[in-house]
Design brief:
This protein is an alpha+beta fold. The chain is built from 13 helices and eleven strands. The strands form three sheets. Strands 1, 2, 3, 4, 5 and 6 form a six-stranded antiparallel sheet that branches. Strands 7-9-10 form a three-stranded antiparallel sheet.
Length: 362
């Protein structure tokens, strides 16, 4: 049965007459729609989303996170004289003040639509990558004073690399699909690099690296780029905001954006770590994050890049050993190809690690 979007929209604190609600964007997790209402003779747009409650089982906790973060961002943008309607997500409450609305079966939320801006799926120009770095740096700066311990952990141990390593060893021990023999070199490679696992998580535990709000999906397509100026203006998709380290967010951007080939490229001769794009992103990130970054965090940004790439490769290999049950695959050995690309990127990062650190500490 099709959703009655007009009826759904009337539960939110929106002024105007309903016009339409149409599919929007390229997201794969939630169902996203562009909602249009007529207000004082002009069309006004909102983003209406049906939350994937099968993945995000604690919708209350999820939406509390988003409300806390967006409200804090809004205050921070206003304090520096910016425009919160363009520089951060604005969550629209229901008419009874809730963060979401449910009909008992589905869960819905509404944001203000950020006009005259676009999110890009791939990097067409290094400038876009730079602007995404500025946007994520700004996001970190806006939330620098936020107490991250308030946040519900949407995905427990998401970047606890020690736990990820334990899961990997369990998959190797069980060898449920008889695939160990095919990947003995890859298994040895992960084990040989196990000392990486505690590089960030131990510093968080000791207090050397502060607990911050982390986005946990710092790809280009989660940044709104202004159509007129080409500037990164806002970060979107806050479903995975959690407590963590900024080194994770920085590192995942590098892992994804500095690969010369596709994430699942079978021909490893095409896979290289782009140090030039690392420098581009680093420059943009540091220009925005400014003094809110501690010296220890800054020193560990390069390690964040290595660690996130190692962790992701280990997760791909674990999934391969467990029968490809987590990451969606479209062909045999795709997860293994994904693991191979990550491992090669780690090897190349470690070869130029001193240069990466020098760039970070200039």
């Amino acid at each position: 049965m099709a959703a009655d979007f007009e009826k759904i929209s009337k539960n939110f604190d929106i002024t105007g007459e309903y016009v339409s609600c149409e599919r929007y964007g390229e997201g794969h997790i939630n169902d996203t729609y562009k909602l249009t209402v007529q207000c004082e003779g002009k069309p006004v747009h909102y983003v209406l989303q049906r939350i994937n409650h099968r993945l995000f089982k604690n919708v209350e906790g999820l939406m509390r996170n988003i409300a806390l973060v967006t409200d804090f961002c809004r205050k921070s943008v206003l304090a520096r004289g910016g425009d919160p309607m363009r520089e951060c997500l604005t969550l629209i409450r229901t008419k009874d003040g809730r963060n979401y609305w449910t009909d008992g079966e589905n869960y819905y939320r509404v944001y203000v639509f950020i006009e005259d801006a676009t999110s890009y799926q791939i990097v067409h120009d290094p400038k876009d990558f730079y602007e995404s770095a500025v946007a994520f740096g700004n996001f970190a700066t806006l939330l620098a004073g936020f107490d991250a311990s308030q946040l519900y952990e949407v995905l427990p141990d998401f970047h606890n690399t020690k736990v990820r390593f334990e899961n990997f060893l369990r998959a190797v021990k069980q060898d449920s699909f008889g695939r160990n023999a095919e990947v003995l070199k890859e298994i040895d490679w992960v084990i040989d690099h196990k000392d990486l696992c505690g590089k960030i998580v131990d510093k968080i535990a000791s207090g050397e690296i502060p607990l911050r709000v982390t986005h946990n999906d710092t790809k280009l397509n989660n940044v709104m780029i202004d159509n007129a100026t080409g500037k990164g203006i806002a970060v979107i998709d806050l479903d995975t905001v959690m407590p963590g380290s900024l080194c994770y967010d920085f590192g995942d951007s590098i892992r994804f954006g500095c690969n010369s080939a596709a994430e699942d490229e079978p021909d490893l001769k095409k896979v290289h770590f782009r140090l030039d794009l690392y420098e581009t992103y680093l420059r943009g990130y540091l220009s925005a994050v400014g003094e809110s970054l501690t010296k220890t965090e800054r020193e560990n940004l390069p390690m964040g890049a290595v660690l996130m790439t190692y962790e992701c490769g280990m997760r791909f290999l674990t999934d391969f050993l467990e029968g490809d049950v987590y990451f969606r695959t479209h062909r045999p050995r795709q997860n293994l190809d994904r693991a191979h690309t990550q491992f090669k990127l780690v090897d190349e990062m470690l070869q130029v690690f001193d240069k990466m650190q020098d760039m970070a500490m200039r």
